[in-house]
Design a protein that fits this description.
A hairpin with a 5-residue loop joins strand 5 and strand 6 (227-233). The protein contains 10 helices and 6 strands. It has a 6-stranded mixed β-sheet. By secondary structure, it is α/β, with parallel strands linked by helices. 41% of the residues lie in helices and 12% in strands.
Amino acid sequence: MSTYKIVMIRHGESEWNMENKFCGWYDANLSQKGVEEAKAGGQALASAGYQFDIAHTSLLTRAQVTLASVLAEIGQKELSVEKTWRLNERHYGALTGLNKAETAAKHGEEQVKIWRRSFDVPPPPMEADHPYYQAIRKDARYADGPSDAEFPSCESLKLTIGRTLPYWDDVIVPQMKAGKRILIAAHGNSLRGIVKHLDSMSDEQIMGCNLPTGIPFVYELDENLKPVVSMQFLGDEETVRKAIESVAAQGKAKK
């Protein structure tokens, strides 16, 4: 029997998703398609009758705009929102700004798959001469954290989970246990970390997990926070299937 329910949504397609670029901590906005996806995600939640007590999101615009769109659709524009760098997308290091297909053509699809989907292999680090280093490292939104020691120059999924799960354990879980109805709007890799944790996935299993943009999914958990219902998408099966396939195909070289 389920005791807790939590809803998560990956942000709608960003401008850099559309251009098939590694985005990470670069603050890309939503594409027009992403705006529409976020609205559709909110409409799916509205149709299913969802209301929330609190929402959590990252410090990046694409997640915050997605959340705002969802809250507008469910009539909860004034909902309390907590923002944290710990829910940011994984930091893609030196790959930030590179086209995924071109990178695959240069380094091989297998290497790009390892960088994108392996558990513990980070991409090359972002050095101070990287074209996006200053825009990310000196961004005022990070004045209150992460600290210099915590600020990543690149991250594997393992490292991303290492800074996401403390927020899950210390902030979200206590709220859930207090009876709060929670919505998380975040990113493919920060959410994959939570999914891996909840579903007790192996490092290999998480490599095959692709979360589509803009489609909400629900977990129902028992009193021990073990899933009774896992990753139940709110959308028709065909739309969800195509969206997942699209995410999986991003790291392939164009034929």
